[in-house]
Design brief:
The complex is a heterodimer of chains A (about 650) and B (about 150). With about 650 residues, chain A is an alpha+beta fold. Chain A has 21 helices and eleven strands. In chain A, α8 runs antiparallel to α9. The longest helix of chain A has about 30 residues. The C terminus of chain A is likely disordered. Chain B has three helices and seven strands. A five-stranded mixed barrel of chain B has the order 2-4-5-7-6. The longest helix of chain B has 30 residues. Classes of the chains: A alpha+beta (about 650), B alpha+beta (about 150). At the A-B interface, α13, β1, α14, β2 and β8 of A face α1, β1 and α3 of B. β1 of chain A pairs antiparallel with β1 of chain B.
Chain lengths: ~650, ~150
């Protein structure tokens, strides 16, 4: 009964979405206030309907209603409540429903926070959101219905994939989708602006918080996914250039470019049509990501099941959205009036360089991700494009970006004194040279790439600190003045400094953990001791330890350093009988500067166990850096300028 | 600076970047493309030891063993028509089982595939599409029975 109500709610949402995508558009075109006003309540009703459907599915999962097919395929009565609940989106149908729920949430947020938007613009934005909703609601209802019943209902379900039975499932997909789907708002704003033929600084001010929100959510989502892969897969790595990872990384890159170009539109009324194009591309990449992940064309933990009809349907949505929006762009963008002029060497120029590098980087990632598919379609053989490709294309493109990242914020708008900016970075230069020298010396002259990566991180970090200190006139003016400047510092400026510093920390973590990783694989018997980088691990043997729905072999290692006890590590190897599947639970000891990472494998049946050890220097900095970046985005989001109502007052004052 | 000049500068910087990216991509494609072969294909092509590739197929039942060092795992990958012995030092992925589809990445040295990486499917009902194709090529593909 509840499942049928959920189905009904989805159908209702589709009808509302169809109306939402037509009525306000007609209203805005005719200037009919009654039709325009339809957009907001429609967005709220759509959210209510989709939320009801989502709750209905969650109810089916929590109560283990195995007559619902997805529940029977992906749940089991022995699973803890947390995984019965997160299992809602641990499968294809449910995760599409989460996608649509977040889409409806974003639309309703535009409807409710967009009180200061002109009625016409808001109506058009919500109409475009409605169209995206129509596409995906049709998709879910006709190819991926989460409420399909099956009779007779099985006595018990087939359980969630054990790899997904982890608290990570509670956080990674929702954050990732907030990012993916969040870009739909920027997309809708861009399409609405193209329909109106008008882009001005006010438009940029409205679109920026949505882009910021989507970007920071995506940052958190990607970081959580990478951390989850790190501790769950037991390979000691944190990024594999897997197509699915790339699918989330491309919208992140374009989103970062969009954030920066929107600043130029807002402050200088320039780069308008480029910014529109980025907004269209960012969401297009989200759709490509959804296609790659959901169509089953890729080998991945995210490819739940292969059904060609779904792939074709998403491909159609993809063509309609990308083709349609780019056609509209080609037709309308030339009508946008170009704005402020600037010299190549200026803040605008630096932001253009940032955009070009990020876009080129995203293009190389796209090529590497799709190339195997192209070759396959052409029948030219099966290939895979792995980390070596990305290391020799994407990484070199990011080096000038990081170099420019420290310089750009010191340049002034319109025309800048580049020599002055560089001279102010003397301290950063000294820090960079010092770091490079230390790394080269410590590695005996062989760690050139490590020296370069850590040197860049130092350059960016110190450069960011210098820019921040300059802004406060720290040590140049009396402390009271600096304090006063701190109190009046715009949050967006603070946010930028925090985000750039986070990037520097993440780069240091990525470089050191990749290039200074120590790895050891050996067979150990109880009582044996292995040493790694100053730690001694004594293997105490393996005991049986059972969980609610699995049997585990738990190893015990007593870790000491110079005779002093450090910790006890207990990696597990779990067996899930329902799915007849094994999982590895790594045990990690972190000091904040490095991780000691232990995985236990199988036994030879004669008392020896395969043990894999890693020592990963600075690896926690990767996720810390990403979270600091997201925090920077959040700080920027609280800027007064972006707050509801503030732009309207300013506009009113200007008139 | 006029609008035209500015656009010219932006476009030329953009073109230079794209050219640099294209150069990097072509260079990377020459060295780092990893081809996928089933056992029959890999043997027919007589791949040299300096070429890294992916070998995919089913783990031959009864072939799984351990070398003397207690760490190196040996097994055979088969497509029904041919089989290649594989050596791998490390911990096998969680879904590795005899009779199931896997992909190994490494080099072929004197008839033995030295794997650096072994990938298995991620869940019960999923088979790497590459393995399905390799099995189809050797005529050993049986669509999985639906439960």
């Amino acid at each position: 009964m509840i499942a049928e109500l959920g189905q009904l709610a989805l159908a209702l949402a589709l009808i509302v979405a169809i109306a939402q995508s037509i009525v306000p558009l007609v209203g805005a075109a005719r200037g009919d206030a009654a039709l325009t006003a339809f957009a907001r309540p429609a967005a709220y009703v759509q959210l209510a309907a989709v939320a009801a459907a989502f709750l209905a599915l969650a109810y089916a999962y929590v109560t283990s209603d195995f007559s619902v097919a997805t529940v029977a395929r992906n749940s089991h009565t022995s699973m803890p409540l947390l995984y019965r609940l997160t299992g809602v989106w641990g499968n294809h149908e449910g995760s599409m429903l989460l996608w649509i729920l977040i889409l409806a949430l974003m639309s309703a947020a535009v409807a409710s926070f967009g009180a200061n938007l002109p009625d016409g613009l808001r109506a058009r934005v919500l109409a475009v959101q409605g169209m995206i909703g129509v596409a995906f609601l049709t998709f879910i209802l006709f190819t991926s219905n989460p409420f399909t019943r099956q009779f007779p209902a099985p006595l018990d379900g087939r359980e969630l994939n054990p790899l997904l039975q982890d608290p990570g499932l509670a956080f990674h997909p929702p954050w990732l989708y907030l990012g993916y789907v969040g870009f739909s708002v920027a997309f809708s704003f861009a399409v609405a602006a193209l329909i109106e033929g008008k882009v001005d600084p006010a438009w940029a001010r409205w679109v920026r918080p949505w882009t910021l929100f989507a970007w920071l959510s995506l940052t958190i989502g990607i970081a959580l996914g990478s951390w989850w892969a790190y501790y769950e897969l037991g390979w000691g790595g944190w990024w594999f250039w897997d197509p699915v990872e790339n699918a989330s990384f491309m919208p992140w890159l374009i989103g970062a470019a969009l954030l920066h170009s929107a600043v130029v539109v807002e402050k200088r009324d320039a780069l308008k049509s480029w910014t529109i194009l980025l907004a269209l591309i960012a969401f297009s990449f989200s759709l490509i990501g959804t296609f790659l992940v959901r169509s089953g064309v890729l080998t991945s933990v995210h490819a739940f099941a292969v059904d060609p009809a779904r792939g074709v349907f998403i491909l159609m949505i993809l063509f309609a959205a990308i083709g349609g929006s780019l056609t509209l762009y080609a037709w309308r963008a030339p009508m946008l009036k170009a704005g402020g002029l600037f010299q190549p060497l200026s803040r605008e120029g630096a932001l253009v360089l940032n955009n070009l590098l990020l876009a080129t980087g995203a293009a190389t990632v796209l090529l590497g991700t799709l190339y195997p598919l192209f070759l396959d379609v052409l029948g030219a053989g099966k290939v895979s494009v792995g980390p070596p490709y990305f290391n020799s294309t994407f990484v070199p493109l990011m080096i000038p970006l990081v170099v420019a990242m420290a310089i750009g914020p010191l340049l002034s708008w319109k025309r800048a004194d580049i020599a002055g900016a560089i001279s102010r970075l003397a301290a950063a230069g000294i820090a960079t040279v010092a770091v490079i020298g230390i790394v080269l010396y410590a590695s005996g002259g062989t760690g050139f790439i490590a020296a370069l990566g850590l040197g860049l991180a130092a350059w960016l970090f110190v450069g960011t600190m210098i820019e921040f200190a300059e802004r406060l006139r720290l040590f140049r003016a009396p402390l009271a003045e600096s304090y006063d400047r701190w109190r009046h510092l715009p949050r967006s400026a603070l946010g930028m400094s925090v985000a750039h510093a986070g990037m520097a920390i993440a780069i240091a973590g990525m470089t050191a953990s990749t290039l200074f990783q120590a790895e050891q694989i050996l067979a150990m018997r109880a009582g044996e001791v292995v040493s790694m980088r100053g730690y001694d691990l004594r293997f105490e043997g393996v005991i049986q330890a059972n969980g609610p729905n699995y049997q585990a072999e738990r190893a015990r290692f007593i870790v000491t350093s110079g005779g002093k006890p450090v910790t006890v590590l207990a990696p597990e190897r779990r067996f899930y009988p329902v799915q007849r599947q094994q999982t590895t639970e790594a045990a990690i000891h972190t000091t904040g500067l490095a991780d000691l990472y232990v995985v236990v494998g199988d036994s030879d049946g004669k008392g020896a166990w395969t043990v894999r050890l890693y020592h990963n220097p600075l690896v926690p900095w990767i996720w810390a850096g990403c979270l600091i970046m997201a925090l920077g985005g959040g700080l920027s989001l609280t800027d007064r300028r972006l707050r509801v109502g503030a732009p309207k007052q300013r506009l009113a004052a200007a008139e | 600076m006029t609008r035209k000049r500015r656009r010219l500068v932006a476009v030329s910087v953009g073109m230079a970047l794209l050219a640099a990216a294209a150069g990097l991509v072509l260079n990377a494609f020459r060295d780092s493309l990893v081809f996928f072969y089933g056992p029959s294909e890999a043997l027919a092509k007589e791949i040299g030891p300096d070429r890294r590739f992916r070998l995919g197929g089913l783990v031959e039942p009864g072939s799984l063993g351990k070398a003397g060092d207690g760490v190196t795992i040996t097994f055979k990958v088969t497509d029904g028509a041919a089989a290649i012995p594989v050596r791998f030092a490390g911990i096998l992925p969680d879904l590795f089982r005899e009779g199931q589809g896997i992909i190994a990445e490494g080099r072929l040295l004197q008839g033995t595939f030295e794997a650096r990486n072994v990938l298995a499917k991620h869940d019960e009902t999923y088979m790497p599409p590459e393995v399905v194709d390799a099995l189809k090529k050797s005529g050993q593909w049986q669509p999985e029975k639906k439960p």
